[in-house]
Amino acid sequence: MITAVLVLAASAAAGHWKWIGSAVAVSLAAGLIFGFFWRFLGVGFGDVRLAILGGLGLAHPTRVGFLVGFGAFVLITLLQAVITLARGGNRRSLFPYGPAIAMAFLLAAAVQ
Questions:
Q1: What is the chain's alpha carbon radius of gyration, rounded to the nearest angstrom?
Q2: Rounded distance, CA 73 to CA 34, Å?
Q3: Given CA atoms 49, 32, 72, 110 in this order, what sign does their dihedral have?
Q4: How confident is residue 17, by pLDDT bands cut at 50, 70 and 90?
């Protein structure tokens, strides 16, 4: 709720009301993607909620920001998978997506 209020305040202060629609669209897209992952691939439900919140906070995404965030998500996820396998895990071992999601949204919001 606080994130939604902050997005509304930022949109009002900047005079860019389309940021609200953009934030909702990014939030829904992230929620649908991770909701699919949760339902069919076993990703934790906390990760889905984090993706929705991160998407809501991303009011004005740029192409470069999206690419940097996506790249960071892929890199962190692959690094976690390699570390899990190196520690004796297998294909079915679980690892958290939360750090990758959080870093991806922070970078996507910071890169203009």
A1: 15
A2: 13
A3: negative
A4: confident
Closest by CA position to 57, among listed 10, 97, 17, 95: 10
CA dist 60 to 28, 39, 45, 98, 112, Å? 15, 29, 26, 22, 9
The answer to whether residue 1 scores a pLDDT higher than 70 is no
pLDDT digits (tens, 9 = 90+) for 43-90: 777 877 888 778 777 777 789 998 999 999 999 999 999 999 999 999
Contact 71, 100 (CB under 8 A): no
* 23, 52, 99 from 13: Cα distances, Å: 16, 24, 31
d(CA 48, CA 39): 10
Q: In this structure, are residues 62 and 111 in contact, taking their beta carbons and an 8 Å threshold?
A: yes
Q: In this structure, what token pair is assigned to residue 26?
A: 């990014």
Q: How many percent of the chain have pLDDT more than 90?
A: 25
